[in-house]
Amino acid sequence: MKNICITTVICAYLRASLRNLWKTLVSCCILTFLFHASFHGFTVLADERTVIVIQSQPIAAYNEAIKGFEESCKRNNVSIAGVYDLKGDIDEGKGVIKNIKDNKQKPDLILAVGILATTLVKEQFTNIPIIFCMVINHERFNLEGSNITGISSEASIRDQFGILKELLGTGKNVGVIYDPKETGGIISEAVSIAGKSNFNLVKTEVTSGDQVASALKNMVNKIDALWIVPDGTVVTKESLEIILKMSLKHRLPVFCTSSAIVRAGALVSISPDYRQTGIQAAQLARTLLNNSTVISLGVKQPDQLKVTLNTQTAGVIRVDISPLRSRPDVVLYP
Q1: Is 300 left (phi over 0), alpha (psi -120 to 50) or beta?
Q2: Co-location of 262 and 148 in the same domain
Q3: What percent of the chain has pLDDT over 90?
């Protein structure tokens, strides 16, 4: 009986010792883990890169670009800290900018979508890399800067005339109405490119929207197609109505860089794919975030284009659009 008691005591002692040993081992493991976590954790937190998105207003094209940006960032482990909508209001924009600047944790990069967001961000953040997109005719707005990267919202002139060549062939007279203060640089570049593509560019200068109708009337019988450039003087609601009405009457193909103008009656547009623009912006963001010595990559041409054709207009003006129907990037409207 005495031996049984001693055995019981010894067993109890051993069990207690093992429990204590196990607790000690667990404690050591936890302390080791916490040590490494605290030691390495600061590096992880310090290296974590965050991006914010600021959009000028909630329109479909901007939302599509932002969606592509978010999807690509997620795939590449880039953290988006917030998406801010300025609602097309400059005072709203100033308030958003102030809140961002007052925040102790500054973003490592800003994506600005649209001209209002881009101009405000450019003025207020000079040491943070900025990527802008969805800014029509960005050359007008002096968006250059040591921390500015951008994606053009227009297809290159070469691409535009390449599509026109596929559709109409060569040896055509192409008319363009423009304000030299708005798009003089674009037209100067276009003269050479059109010539190399065997087109003759027929130019007419205007200084106000009121002159557009007479300018078109004077050239309509001398041209085989009309090119609408993103010119703020020429492209107004009133002038577009005149241009599209007159072009239909004279069976004149109109090409441009806006699918919205095609939906209004133009024949064809060559424009960026907005979702792909967002994906391209995310790729540029990743490049900038991974190289702290580079804060600007310049302004890039869009990676992927979309060709929109108005089939009803094609029928009215009797233009064969079959040369473009087989392209993978074609959208037929309606």
Answers
A1: beta
A2: no
A3: 84
